[in-house]
Each structure stands twice: as structure tokens, then as C-alpha cells.
Design a protein that fits this description.
The complex is a heterodimer of chains A (577) and B (109). Chain A is an alpha/beta fold. Chain A has 2 domains: 229 residues, Rossmann fold (3-Layer(aba) Sandwich), CATH 3.40.50.300; 222 residues, Rossmann fold. Chain A is built from 15 helices and 25 strands. Chain A has a 9-stranded mixed beta sheet, sandwiched between helices. In chain A, strands 17-16-18-19-15-20-21-22-23 form a 9-stranded mixed beta sheet, with helices on both faces. In chain A, β24 and β25 form a beta hairpin. In chain A, α12 packs parallel to α13. Chain B is α+β, with helices and mostly antiparallel strands and 109 residues long. The longest helix of chain B has 17 residues. In chain B, 30% of the residues are buried. Chain B contains 3 helices and 4 strands, in the order βαβαββα. Classes of the chains: A alpha/beta (577), B alpha+beta (109). At the A-B interface, β6 and α5 of A face α1, β4 and α3 of B. β6 of chain A pairs parallel with β4 of chain B, so a sheet runs across the interface.
Chain lengths: 577, 109
């Protein structure tokens, strides 16, 4: 337990004695006032004695501070038997001289009062007990029992006042328990005498479910948590839940983890969820929330991470069987110790106990991923406000531990349009996926949308998905004439699409063929033309040659004539020819 | 008020009364209690009683055994049942009733 982590100032704070009780030290910001008496009051059965006793036992075991328990109601043997189930071995502690139990028996019938007296005997007994083991902690379990034993109230009151003063002087940290009175904190007004710290335990029943609350009424010289904090008495003892006081200062991770459905991952800008984020999967009945949750759990186990799955609707074997039918085999992960399924009916326990169980299991298993399916069922055991506060605390707790948490939530059908979860946790979670049924003509189709995803872009599409033998499969978006189509119309659409494709392909092939033909025709024409051209060319060349020859002949003829006219016999002329 | 059928052999007369007076130091209340007690015993239990005065300041461990809270406390160990009388024993009648001592002249015993 972190002690005094809250003290923000450098001022010298009141010395405190850590109780060692889960959560109480956080609420009291370090423990009870050291060397002073603390009054713990509450009605019958709210765990005053247990809290006081745990204060002693934890003091001995954790802080090595011996303690004295002076009990006015139960005998030492009864008390030892009562707390043995919590693992407190009082006789052993007594044998080690760490603990002293003194049962003060007060019986009016045995006591005759004649004249003046005081309670020096009680002081001597207590002083002797404290000194004999060097006790630092003292518990007086229901000192009010003295009022039943001694008729002279005036003497008693002054003696009790003196007792508390004396305890203070002794420097022992004391818890005094007292029954709650009618309209007052204690039946005998003990709060008048104990002014340093008063803790009130309350046991109330709302809708047949007991919830226990602890409140620090006053704590002189120190700040403290002022709320009512739920507390529990578990098999490990007393446990206060101060988790609402957590501040939003947890570290964040940039790591992305897969949802287990590749197509769903693609819908997120960064390809999955952030590690340590909290996810909400809300939907109406039968929209595969559990399957998606189990897929996520299985994906975590595949990455070799530990996963804790809280099932409030199904028993583990049933869950395993059902998931196997959609191709998710959880059994091997359980055997490898990666997956732990905790199944219980929500009504089995009060809300706080659920929270404690979750805390305990998280501490035990140190999971990377937690799946709670579904959180909505918790409403059956608490009021909305309480569920919300519990979930806030749970989400904060998980975030601080950097555990990725997936909650599923059932939305009642008439609420679908509002897309709000009744618990109002949607504002607490980082990523919210909504799954729902789209009712079409004669069919229902499941679609999935991402309503929000903090810290990354996400697809705005509604994606139809199927639960197949291979798990959840997202189908490609098909946009029909009037938006996205699903189910049978998707099939129709696909058939039409296919027909059109075939038709288009045939058309294309036909066009290709025609083109080819045209090309061939053209090529043939080109060849003809070329041949024609060639023949014309040939002819022209011929003519040209002839012309050249003719010209030459003419030239030659003219030269001969010229020679002849000059008187010379054109003898060589004949040769040249 | 016949005890004989219940207690099988209570030798009534030779019975020795065992009384313990718990005090804490020599406080006026303690001293008063002691002197008062001595007086009553001599009057009513002469020769038939043992008186032990325990000072808890010296023997604090003895307080637990007899369930002592108030000081001074007178404890009647014998005859049974154990009875406790707290205070300085100034009220004679209440002490006698408390100790279940009947005046010697009382007929019957």
C-alpha cells in the first residue's frame, strides 16, 4: 500500500500509523493518527471488531508493532475462532508475545457498588498488557459495555475521559469501537471524548442488497477523503475501495493491439486499439458481443498475453463450447494459463464485492487484457449511480495498470436509436463499437460501426458481419441505390453485380474481337494500297527511266549532229554506240 | 432460603471465608475500604475469614485473573459463587448483603 502518496506539501504532517488495511490508508492519507485514539463506530454487524482486529494483526505482521486487544464482549477464544477463517492466527501471535488479548468481563449482577471507586484496575490491566509486550497499538472493543456494568455513569464518564487521555500519554495508537446510537454517532456519546479521528461504518440495504460504506467523520490535523467509501469484508479481511480518488494522470501507450478481427482492425486509422485503452462494445441481444469479446481475448492469448475474462452470463464450459462453434478455441489458452475465465452470476454478490473480486483477480493474474461480459448485468445488483461509480473506478484502475479492457453492454432495443448505454460509461471509454441488428425484409443482419475512437481516425462505415466457422468476418461494403445494403439484398445485389460483370466481360470480348477484325480488314486494305502503290511506283520508275534514256538518246543524237555539221566524220560515234 | 439440598456437604460453621481486596497503592479510597472491611469481618466473621490485600501497582498481572476493573474491589472467593463489591465499602449494609453475610445473631445459621 502506498503511504502518504498524496501529501502535496512539504509541511510537517501529522505522524500517522498505517493500518495495513486495504484502501483505508489511502482514504486516511497514511493511516490513523499516531499515538492517539480513533473512534470506530457503526451499527451491529458492520465489522467494527474485524476492522480493529485487522488493524492489530496487520500492525504485527506488516509493521512489527505489537498490539493489545481489550475486548469487553467476546472472550479471547471466541474472537480467535471468529477470525481464524480470515487467516488470522491469534493464538500463534499471542505465543510470540506480539499480541495480548484481555477479555474484560463485566456483569452487573456480580457487582455490588458500595461507595466511591474508580477504574484504576482497568488502567492497570491495560498498562500491564501494553508494557508486557511493548505494544504500539491498542484496541478497546466496545468500551461502552462498561456502561452496562457500572451503575454510576458520572464516575464512568470521567474515567473514560481519563482513559483516553491516559492512552494518549502512553503514546499508543488506539482504536475504540462503539455501537452507533440513535441520532448520535455512538450510543453513549463517546465521540465527545475521542476528538482526533472518528470513522463511521455504515451497513445499508438497498434493494435487498447490503452495501457497506465507510466515512471519516473527522480527522483532526489532517486532510482525508471525505466521501463515503464502500468497503467489504472478504475472505482476506477488511477492504476499503477508495479508487474514485484516483486522478487522471496515468501513463499512456502508443502500442496498437489487434481486435482479433483483421477487417475490424482496418477500420481503425492505426490498425487496432491502443494498449491500455478501454473499449465498449454495445449492442442489442444476439449481436455477437460475447463472440467479439472472446475473439479479442483469444487474440490476446495468441500474442502470448494473459487475459482475464469475466463472464456474467455463461459458465466457462458453456462459453468454451459456444466459442468453439464459431472457430475460437479457448481451451488451449486456459490450459496454457494464459486465459482465466471467472464466471459468476451478478446477483451472487453486491457490486462492491464484484469490484473486489475483479481487483483481486487482476492482482493475482496480472493480465494484459480484461474482458467483462457484460457490464449491463451488474445493474441488477446496484443502482445506476452505483454501477456508474463502480465502473468509473474499475476503468481508472485498469488504465493505471495499463490493462486493455473490453466491456460489453447490452442495450435494450428501444434504446438503440439513442446509442447510449444505460450505465453512461460511454463517456469513460476510449473506443466505442456498436453492434446492432438491421431489420430488413424478412431478415435481420448484424452490422458494426465505430462510434468513437479516441486518438485515431476510424472508418465511418457500417459494416455487415457474419459469424462463420472461422469466427467473425466483416463483409465488404456494398452500396446499393439507397445506401449500404445487407443480407439478402446484398446477395441479390451481388448476383446482379455478377451478371453485369459477366455481361460486361462478354461485351468487352466482343468489342475486342470486332476491333481485331477491323484491324485485319484495315491491314488488308493497307496491303492492297501498298501493292497498288508499288505497282504505280514501278510504272513511274519505268517511265522515268525511259525518259532518261530517251533524253540521253536525244542528247547523243544532237551531239552527233553537231559533230557532223563541223565536217568531221563521226567515226567514233559508231564505236560509242 | 435453605441451601442444603443443593450444596451437598457445606460445613457451614467451619467454613472459612476467603476475601481478597484489590487496591492500587495507598489511596484514601483503598485505605478506607480496608479499614471498613476489617471492621465488618471482625464483627461478623471473626475467626472464619482470610483477607488478602493485593496491591495492583505491585502485581498488575493479578488484575486479569479476577476481572478487576474498579478499584477498590473486594472479591469473595469462598464461599462460592464469587462476588465482587466495588467501592470503599462505606455502606455497611450493602457490603453485608453483597457478601451475603448474615449477622451472627441471625437465627437459622
Amino acid at each position: 500500500m502506498p503511504e502518504n502518496t498524496h501529501s502535496p506539501t512539504a509541511h510537517k504532517t501529522l505522524p500517522k500509523t498505517p493500518t495495513g488495511i486495504d484502501g483505508l490508508d489511502e482514504v486516511t492519507e497514511g493511516g490513523l493518527p499516531q499515538g492517539r485514539p480513533t473512534l470506530v463506530c457503526g451499527s451491529a454487524g458492520c465489522g467494527k471488531t474485524l476492522m480493529a482486529l485487522e488493524f492489530l494483526v496487520r500492525g504485527i505482521l506488516t509493521y512489527d508493532e505489537p498490539g493489545v486487544l481489550m475486548t469487553f464482549e467476546e472472550t479471547a477464544a471466541e474472537l480467535s475462532a471468529n477470525v481464524a477463517s480470515l487467516g488470522f492466527d491469534l493464538p500463534a501471535l499471542q505465543a510470540q508475545h506480539k499480541l495480548r488479548l484481555d477479555h474484560v468481563h463485566v456483569d452487573r449482577a456480580e457487582i455490588e457498588e458500595t461507595g466511591e471507586y474508580d477504574l484504576e484496575g482497568l488502567f492497570i490491566r491495560l498498562g500491564y498488557a501494553i508494557d508486557s509486550i511493548g505494544a504500539k497499538r491498542v484496541v478497546l472493543d466496545t468500551v461502552e459495555a462498561l456502561f452496562a456494568g457500572f451503575p454510576n455513569e458520572g464516575v464512568l464518564r470521567s474515567e473514560i475521559r481519563r482513559l483516553f487521555r491516559w492512552l494518549k500519554d502512553k503514546g499508543v495508537t488506539t482504536i475504540i469501537t462503539a455501537e452507533r446510537g440513535d441520532g448520535t454517532l455512538t450510543r453513549q456519546g463517546l465521540e465527545e471524548y475521542v476528538s482526533d479521528c472518528v470513522i463511521l461504518l455504515d451497513n445499508r440495504i438497498i434493494d435487498q442488497i447490503t452495501t457497506r460504506r465507510l466515512r471519516i467523520v473527522k480527522y483532526r490535523g489532517s486532510t482525508h477523503g471525505t466521501n463515503e467509501y464502500p468497503y467489504l469484508i472478504t475472505e482476506d479481511g477488511f477492504s476499503v475501495l477508495p479508487i474514485t480518488s484516483l486522478n487522471l494522470r496515468h501513463e499512456v501507450s502508443n502500442e496498437i493491439i489487434s481486435s482479433g478481427v483483421p477487417a475490424l482492425d482496418e477500420m481503425f486509422g492505426r490498425g487496432g486499439y491502443y494498449r491500455g485503452s478501454s473499449l465498449l462494445l454495445s449492442g442489442t441481444a444476439g449481436t455477437a458481443k460475447t463472440t467479439l469479446g472472446a475473439t479479442f481475448a483469444a487474440a490476446a492469448c495468441q500474442r502470448n498475453e494473459r487475459c482475464l475474462l469475466f463472464a456474467f452470463e455463461e459458465s466457462p464450459p458453456q462459453l468454451i463450447r459456444n466459442m468453439r462453434s464459431v472457430g475460437i478455441d479457448l481451451q488451449p489458452y486456459i490450459e496454457q494459463g494464459l486465459l482465466y475465465i471467472e464466471a459468476s452470476r451478478p446477483t451472487l454478490n453486491g457490486l462492491e464485492r464484484h469490484l473486489i473480486t475483479i481487483h483481486k483477480l487482476i492482482k493475482e493474474h496480472k493480465p494484459h487484457v480484461v474482458v467483462i461480459d457484460p457490464i449491463t448485468n451488474l445493474i441488477s445488483v446496484g443502482s445506476l449511480l452505483e454501477v456508474r461509480s463502480m465502473l468509473t473506478r474499475l476503468i481508472d484502475f485498469l488504465k493505471v495498470q495499463n490493462i486493455t479492457a473490453l466491456f460489453t453492454a447490452l442495450i435494450s432495443p428501444h434504446n438503440v436509436q439513442q446509442e447510449a448505454t444505460e450505465e453512461g460509461v460511454s463517456s469513460l471509454v476510449d473506443t466505442w463499437i456498436s453492434v446492432r441488428d438491421l431489420e430488413g425484409v424478412g431478415e435481420r443482419n448484424r452490422v458494426l460501426t465505430i462510434l468513437k475512437s479516441r486518438g485515431m481516425s476510424h472508418s465511418n462505415q457500417m459494416r455487415e458481419f457474419l459469424i462463420t466457422d472461422q469466427g467473425v468476418q466483416l463483409l465488404d461494403v456494398v452500396i446499393g441505390p439507397s445506401g449500404i445494403v445487407t443480407g439478402a439484398s446484398r446477395l441479390t445485389h451481388q448476383l446482379q453485380d455478377n451478371a453485369q460483370t459477366v455481361f460486361r466481360q462478354q461485351e468487352l470480348a466482343r468489342k475486342d474481337r470486332e476491333l481485331e477484325r477491323k484491324r485485319r480488314v484495315l491491314e488488308a486494305t493497307i496491303n492492297n494500297l501498298r501493292t497498288e502503290f508499288e505497282s504505280v511506283e514501278e510504272e513511274l520508275r519505268q517511265i522515268n527511266n525511259e525518259e532518261v534514256t530517251h533524253q540521253q538518246a536525244l542528247t547523243t543524237g544532237r551531239q552527233q549532229i553537231a559533230h557532223a555539221s563541223s565536217g568531221r566524220q563521226p567515226a567514233p560515234e559508231a564505236d560509242s554506240l | 432460603m435453605e441451601n442444603t439440598p443443593i450444596a451437598p456437604t457445606p460445613p457451614l460453621d467451619p467454613e472459612t471465608w476467603e476475601l481478597r481486596l484489590y487496591v492500587a497503592g495507598q489511596t484514601p479510597k483503598s485505605l478506607a475500604a480496608l479499614s471498613n472491611l476489617r471492621k465488618y469481618c471482625e464483627q461478623h466473621l471473626a475467626g472464619r475469614y482470610q483477607l488478602e490485600v493485593i496491591d495492583l501497582l505491585q502485581n498488575p498481572q493479578l488484575a486479569e485473573g479476577d476481572q478487576i476493573l474498579a478499584i477498590p474491589t473486594l472479591v469473595r472467593k469462598v464461599p462460592a459463587p464469587i462476588r465482587r463489591i466495588i467501592g470503599d465499602l462505606s455502606n455497611k449494609e450493602r457490603v453485608l448483603v453483597g457478601l451475603d453475610i448474615r449477622p451472627l445473631k441471625d437465627p437459622g445459621h
